[in-house]
Amino acid sequence: MAAGLRGSRGLVQVSPLERLTCMTLLQLLAHSSLALLMLAAPVRAQHTRDSSHAYPWRGRIVYGGGPSVGAPPSDFTGETPPAQWCLQATRRASGDLGVSRQSWTEVSRSWLREVLSDTADLGTGWREVLGGAPRLAAQDSIVQVFDERMCHEIADSINQGLLGWEKGPPPVVVFRVRDYLVAYPSNARMGEFGIAVGLSLERRIRGVAAW
Fold this sequence. Notes:
It is built from six helices and seven strands, in the order H-E-H-H-E-H-H-E-H-E-E-E-E. It is of the alpha+beta class.
């Protein structure tokens, strides 16, 4: 549950399966020079005064492998709630996949389809770190959610369980995959990585992964 994620500390063992490609956050930081810089400087992504609550979920994020995409870009600053909760991230991705010159949404949808449809260890690992996301078949669709009420509820759930913003919270990009949700909050950066949150249709957090 979300509250369990917020209060947890230390390393995470997602599954005893040896073939999982998951990495703990400390391993992730060791592979990311930009993320190392994050530890030596104040967190820029959160401009509110609740710095003591910033990133309480840091020790719970795991990594499925592959390139970084980054958090979806937005104009949210933490001063006021966003004008729209369903973010349409049309700017370029900021991570490794930003070289494609596609929008963040296009890159993330493509990468999500690739990892969820993969039948080898990469796909197994990603479905696990996202909390049990379904494996995609060729006929399955990844549908972006534009229902403002739904996005607001998801943003609140992620903020309560993971982020801890006093004002806002930031808008989210949400994809629905069958009966599962994958949400990406803006302004949740870990170096070059953003975060992907796997949720049930009841808005319960099932897994959090570096994105």
